[in-house]
Amino acid sequence: MANPTAAMLVIGDEILSGRTRDANMYHLAGKLTEVGINLTEVRVVSDDEPAIVAAVRALSGNYDQVFTSGGIGPTHDDITADCIAKAMGANIGVRDDALKILQAHYDRQGIEMNEARLRMARIPDGAQLIDNPVSAAPGFSLGNVHVMAGVPAIFEAMVAGLLPTLTGGQPLISETVRIDRAEGEIAEFLNILVAEYPDLSFGSYPFRFDGAFGTNVVVRGTERDQIERAAERLRSQQGKPNSD
Amino acid sequence: MANPTAAMLVIGDEILSGRTRDANMYHLAGKLTEVGINLTEVRVVSDDEPAIVAAVRALSGNYDQVFTSGGIGPTHDDITADCIAKAMGANIGVRDDALKILQAHYDRQGIEMNEARLRMARIPDGAQLIDNPVSAAPGFSLGNVHVMAGVPAIFEAMVAGLLPTLTGGQPLISETVRIDRAEGEIAEFLNILVAEYPDLSFGSYPFRFDGAFGTNVVVRGTERDQIERAAERLRSQQGKPNSD
Questions:
Q1: Which long-range contacts (CB under 8 A, 24 or more apart) does B190-199 make?
Q2: What is the pTM of this model?
Q3: Using an 8 Å Cβ cutoff, are A55 and A9 in contact?
Q4: Which helix (DSSP H) or strand (DSSP E) does residue A61 occupy?
């Protein structure tokens, strides 16, 4: 059976303006690969209702799982929860279970609940809460859409709690073979391997080191034996001269 | 007049599998902001023809400019040029101008041209070449789609050459005001400013430092005076107690 597919939606003006370097995509990509869920597409959109709603609908329809980051805080630009509800056709309001979690957190810290903080208890009907061990305000899963915070420490904690509840596939295994020859020199041999091993994928990443050209070839698949055989074939190209 | 809009398409399995951390999005976002082009959407897709073609068509139709990174090297997984040609309905083949550039580069280095390297001279009919001062193999612009390499040093050099040829808008100016109060404390005041300054955008980014909560508010717009006035109002919130 094919592995489940996934998409990620990163929400936030700060990423698109270049103010903030997104870190969540790289984190999620690695974690999904570990559990055998194939991250197939990522989109980044701004804090803009029509853009978020359209992206959620497109991704939720095309992939098994959708993960979002950003826009679930207390301020005016945090519109993700309402947009998800709209995209998925659900009602949304302050929910008792979320409010209880927030109230307990603020009580412990001696902080007062106010209208802004109350926004973070707005959760669509029918959604499951995602635990936030860092700052209490929960994320949520609605249908196949998992809504998480943009702050990396919180996003990562939410992913850690969420992933064990999802059904993964066969973890993707990869092996990197470094060949000290230019990409253009090994391309022809790579084509032969690609044809020989239809179940594996081969990525080719050129680098330059001390003025010499080299290539990292990444072999990916789910069968370790097969990957090992292909990697061995690749290593046989190491000794060849850099221009033949 | 509104600023031109732009989208970016990052192409590559290595980003989606978590093997490589994309750096080009952050770089391009900053550069576009400097020249007044609004990066409005980013998509990341794998080295997969239907995915690339669909994304190029959607983005090229929706935005003034589209920038792609990745997939223009010599190996089997470098399919971007052919996909762009297909998406835009152009013919593609080895083009003399691109071949001349590559041949001169390899001649200088005493490297032989081969079939794999010849692939990098495949350029759609009607496209303008984008200069590659790092490793010669050119990018290209076809219609409103600008196709560049994925290796960050090459991508950045191509962007540096390309951007002065595009028409920008009014550069977006931003000012960050650090307020040592929790996001939930200043949200209400922020709402007032948002209503007062419809031409400005306000982003709110919570942080935690030495156990205390704080918020960076980023004010963005094109009129420096207006931004300064709004920032001054924000700074007036600094002195207030952290729970009122």
A1: B190/A75, B190/A76, B190/B217, B191/A76, B193/B230, B193/B233, B193/B234, B194/A76, B196/B230, B197/B221, B197/B226, B197/B230, B199/B223, B199/B226
A2: 0.88
A3: yes
A4: helix A49-62
The domains located in chain B, with CATH, are 5-165 (3.40.980.10), 173-235 (3.30.70)
A30 touches chain B (CB under 8 A): yes
Structure tokens at A75: 């301020």
Residues of A with Cβ-Cβ distance to B77 under 8 angstroms: 202-204
Q: Which alpha helices (DSSP H) does chain B contain, by range?
A: 13-16, 24-35, 49-62, 80-88, 96-109, 115-118, 152-162, 183-196, 224-235
A190–chain B Cβ distance below 8 A for any pair? yes
| pLDDT tens column, B118-161 | 999 999 999 999 999 888 999 999 999 999 999 999 999 999 99
What are A114-152's pLDDT values in tens digits? 999 999 999 999 999 999 988 899 999 999 999 999 999
Does residue A144 sit at the B interface (CB-CB below 8 Å)? no
- With contacts defined as CB-CB under 8 Å, which chain B residues touch A157? none
Is pLDDT above 50 for A243?
Answer: no
Are the Cβ atoms of A44 and B22 closer than 8 angstroms?
Answer: no
